[in-house]
Amino acid sequence: MASQAPSTKRQKREEYRKAHKEDGLTELPKKRFYRQRAHANPFSDHQLEYPADPDSMDWAAHYPAYLAPESEQSTTENNDSRSALRPLTRAVTVADIGCGFGGLLVALAPKLPNELLIGMEIRTQVTEFVQDRIRALRKQNAEDGLYQNIACLRANSMKFLPNFFKKAQLKKIFLCFPDPHFKARKHKARIVSLTLNSEYAFVMQPGGIVYTITDVEDLHTWMVRHFHEHLSFEKVTKEEEAEDECVKTMMVETEEGKKVARNKGEKFVACFRRLEDPPWP
Q1: Catalytically annotated residues
Q2: For the segment 102-119, what is each residue's pLDDT rounded down to a tens digit?
């Protein structure tokens, strides 16, 4: 029996995604309709939309359950588009950078009920899958209000992280199974570097934690070295890691982590605490 033509498969995927979004389906989306390559080039022009600065970011569409009462919203009338933004009752404090298909976000939602979590994913169809997944989970749990505290947006965090978050805004950043970029000439595209670590330090609260996990030992060594060399971070002890519920969740709930477990591979974990900035001389 002849296989379906590529155009027919593509059309079916598009029709499924459109129906899932427009019909407000409560069933969870199926991954096979959101196929995309495993990785994307962070240096390419992905035609992304991003705010000019954190004050210009409209989070209301992502967290409608956390809209501030109208009495707390600005009534200033001017031409500044920021005055039209609808504020939330709390700020986003947890970011899953390169969130993939959203397994960690979904698992952490009930474990961090007082935090707003955002998944940041560069791949278009993967982002769409996570958004549809969250939408369906919210509908399934409408009575108890679960999963209102998680959202996903398409973004290139290697370029635009400070456009989304203010200084010292985040409590936790997750870097789970990032692209290892094995070739030496590709190392500049790794999600951890001294330059990027400075951006993580900028958006993180003192005492906040960066969580990393990979199944590639060389990448693990690279991340540990670059965070160790950065004066704004210190490595969290293995004893602290063992007691951290987020580490336990990160080990078993990401899609990549489950794949590694099925293949009986090894997972390398390292966490780093944001230090207080030293006083000015």
Answers
A1: 179
A2: 999 999 999 999 999 999
